[in-house]
Amino acid sequence: MPTAASWTEVRGATRDVGHLLAFRTSTVRRPRAVLVVAAVFVGLTAAAAGIPSRVDGAGSNKGYSLDSLILLPAAMAGLLLLAVASAVASGGGRELLSREYGVAYPVSPTTDHLGALLFAPLNIAWLIQAWVLLGATSYGVESRSLLPALIGMLVWIAAATAVGQVVAWTVEAVRRTEHGIAIVRTAGIALAAGVVALQLSGNLASLLDALYTRWLVVGFVDGFSQRWLASIGVELAILVVAVVVGAIPAHLAARRPPRDELRVESGSHAARPLPRSDFAGLLRTDRGSVWRAVPMRRGLAVLAVGPGLVALAGDLTWSQMTILPGLVASGGALLFGVNSWCLDHRGGLWRESLPVSPSTVFGARAWVLTEFLLVASFTTIVLAGLRAGLPTSAELAALLCTWVVVVLQVVSSAMRWSAKRPFAVDLRSARATPAPPVVMVGYSTKLAVTTTLTSLVFSGLAMVDTWQMSVVAASLFITWSLVRLLHARDTWADPVARARVVTTVLLESSSGNGEFMGMLLLIRHGQASFGADDYDVLSDLGAEQSRVLGRAMAASPRLGERSPAVVLSGGMRRQRATVDEVVGAAGWDATVDVDPRWDEFDHLSVIGAYPDPQLDDAAEVDPGDMDRRAFQELFLKSTARWVSGNHDGEYDESFATFIARTRDALGDACRSAGPRSTVAVVSSGGVIAAIAAMLVDVTKDPRRLSSPWQRLNTVMVNASVTRVVVGSTGARLLTYNEHGHLPLDQVTYR
User: Is residue 191 located within the same domain as residue 126?
Assistant: First the structure.
């Protein structure tokens, strides 16, 4: 089993991460948004690290400055715990490429592991904790030692994130075993009970003070010295080891199915009495979709308990706790709220057919989101307050007002974003995010800034003698949030805007069901008769492969949701014979049309034009006289020369001409695949690989398609299926080279 212990694996995974990041960036609706979000993120990080050092009393080693310095070791431990909890809750971290889109090129677990590390900032709690840690360092450390201390903290943030990833993959690998869910839950309860016991016994503070992070902080504040180098060296060692070793449990987890997700999808629930009102019925439906979902349950546990335990360990005062509700509410919204309508998928059409007003639908969804955030943030406040003693009336009023205000702020923003920028995503996986990564970074930053500034306002009001000041300030914030929420409701009530949202999450749903999308099923012919007098005839195995495929497509909703009304085929005999076998085995009542544009390129002509000095007469080359290995080597050399475009005059059909006719054939087929219709096309590996390359890289320059075409063409399996979905935005590659329906002894490539 390959692991990150192999440097070859690490290098390959690193390259793959770069390619996938470039791919995700190229699909952003507004490319400039990537630069804007990156600039804002860097700017806020720089502000967190620099502004506190300019405040009066910073670095004075007394008062609040001394308190910040003393709390740094515990804060570093808190970041580590937070990194562990966040990665565990998301099943190993966020996905660089979702499972549905990772079918064209397999994404290795090592690549997945490295991508999850890069996407750690998508977590609002991680962002705020990192900024707070940098700010506390900037405020508590003397100016002469500030730069080395900040460097040390940045390295620690990276190391803690990597360690959290290792623990998360290990937990996920255990969770996917037969009794893994029970084991993980028992361990989690035992860990929480141990923390509570330490707190009740008064030993928690002593344990935190004895942590190794204290040794690191001592090195940070010593300036650029040997002691500082030792601290940095330890951190770098932890970082490198965690990054490399983390792929081992990632591989283990990847080989096991996610049992909790499968249990939710296959579970059943007893019928309940009918609700008394439309609003109650919608509430029940929305609560079921949220509270039963694996990502929501895990996220709620981490959001509610994690920050509370960190605050409990850090012995925060009541005025300092005002930061917690915003942190938790923002994190909860990032689980699903910022794209709340994506939970509907095909159910959105059913809901639209109900005789209820759009305002009622909006109210139910906003209510469920609000109660989800209220429960999570209130649990955090209760845990954090266990060690804080009794609050004054001003402190209690400020904290409760912050709780209500930030929840309403987050809900109004989330519901507005949900209607303004809907995305089609599948949130069944604990690793999924409700929006693309770049968008999630933007949402995280906006929520972090808004809720943090609001929390600081009420933190100051907590120190005022009169509690009424907090109530007055809260009324202003609440009024503004309610106005924005009503505007979001009006947007949802607009039938045009609502239709755009519903069709986005329905027609472009990444669940793969595609009920109202057009579907192209691109089928490669069965095995031809390699080495025989006539290559363009199905072998006995090729005929059986085609029949196996037909039976699978009749039985499996994954391969063929609807029987195609039209089957297109090239004019080659192996293609038409495959049509006969597949249609007969599948029982399709379809019209079969022959279109020569789906013919394979003339590979014998391409090979014949290759100037091979080892062949007496390259034009008379006969594959029957060569073994498969020798023929494959000659084939690769010949096609590489063909696709280069440097010798087009020597071929009856150049690679550019081949791409052009394939593109035309695809366009006509897409126009035939309207809503609710499926078109099956039986063609050859070169044609299907060309279509896949076009859909992955939208360029019209054949030279840019040559490299992906060669790589895709060499792995195409006989009687495999490639699925293309056709929607309002054009054709998209959904899967490539599916051949799980074939037994292993029937998998052939030529």
Answer: yes
